[in-house]
Recover the amino acids of this structure.
């Protein structure tokens, strides 16, 4: 099956599921340089697969590009496809990390899923592809642990 053309620069339909969402990649003009790219997703939404209630998270996606960059419009569409998707916090976080890693084949990738509390318990989920490339500056994700009112 031939890959669809890039979604950048044209109107596209919103994907209904993460599986049908297309993640696009573009050539990395700095592929000989190790550097970090960070995507911050402060309003991620999915559904609890048991109750159907909405779940909310702050996602931080860091990666060291190889030959490819992740095209941001396609990431926005992919992230939006989770709004009506039922999956546990752990599944959503790891699924997103694995899908991005599979599509762009970065030198390194990590995702932090900082989920807002439901039932009084926040859940933080972390996944990465392996070791950080030597000499790569990787700042902290900067998302404070959930403290509630205390």
């Amino acid at each position: 099956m031939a890959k669809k053309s890039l979604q950048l620069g044209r109107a596209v339909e919103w994907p209904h599921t993460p599986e049908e969402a297309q993640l696009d990649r573009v050539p990395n003009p700095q592929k000989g340089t190790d550097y970090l790219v960070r995507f911050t997703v402060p309003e991620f939404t999915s559904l609890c697969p048991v109750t159907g209630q909405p779940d909310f998270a702050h996602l931080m996606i860091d990666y060291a590009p190889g030959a490819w960059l992740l095209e941001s419009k396609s990431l926005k569409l992919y992230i939006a496809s989770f709004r009506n998707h039922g999956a546990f916090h752990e599944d959503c976080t790891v699924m997103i990390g694995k899908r991005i890693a599979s599509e762009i084949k970065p030198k390194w990738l990590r995702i932090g899923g900082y989920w807002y509390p439901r039932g009084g318990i926040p859940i933080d989920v972390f996944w990465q592809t392996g070791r950080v490339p030597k000499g790569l500056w990787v700042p902290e994700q900067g998302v404070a642990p959930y403290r509630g009112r205390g």
Summary: The domain at 37-129 is CATH 3.30.1130.10 (GTP Cyclohydrolase I, domain 2). The first strand starts at residue 25 and ends at 27. The two ends are 54 Å apart (CA to CA).
